[in-house]
Amino acid sequence: MRRAHPLLLSLVLGLSLALGCAGIALVPQIHFAYFEQPADDDPWSGKIAGWQSRERARPAALLSLPPVAQAAMSAPGALPTVSGEMAAPDLRTKYSAFLAERKRAMAREFAEWVQAQAKHHYVADGAIDHWATLEETLRANGDDCDGLELLTFRGLRELGFADEEVFRAIVYRPSDGQHHMVTFWFETPDDPWVIDPTGAMTTGMPRMSDLPAWVPLKVFGERTEYTVHRTNERTPPAELAAN
To answer: End-to-end CA distance of the chain, in Å?
Structure first.
């Protein structure tokens, strides 16, 4: 199994595993490979596995909606033909582009909603950092960043976003050693959209490349776990492991 990149490993091993929630804070743009297998001694794996086991035992989902079709990345507009003339886009292109924009609009709306809810339902863990399940968060009427983040992680999936698109993510700010939990939406595999439940890292829904002060460390779901590696070029992974 591939070992973690020395830079990220040194950052992680020197820190406490208490995630905490960052407070509100340039470096050159850095690119990352998000879907690398974790090292055998990855210090986050135990805590991730513990949350995964408890979350998989949650009650049945509140919603059951069909998946949203895979969104095309092209926007509507005229397309060049072989002769160089501009031709109107066909129905398939316009349909795919419409779905893509609707998905983005839905995700942005969810980001605004969860950040508004955090103002009323943020509850600090205290001395012991506990990663709540969604059911625990709802029952307690709130939680800190790692509990509130589940509203977005689970909510987007309930609304039809594919499991391989939406992940939980641990991010790190080297300037002050803060860790934070956010949701990554991988519309493209190499530069995810970031939804921060508390707004401590960012508000709205920027891409990770727009937040150079933060370093992504881990990407995981209910059954998957990946380590993020720094890379010199923005290169998508060869394939994503099945959830």
So the answer is: 18
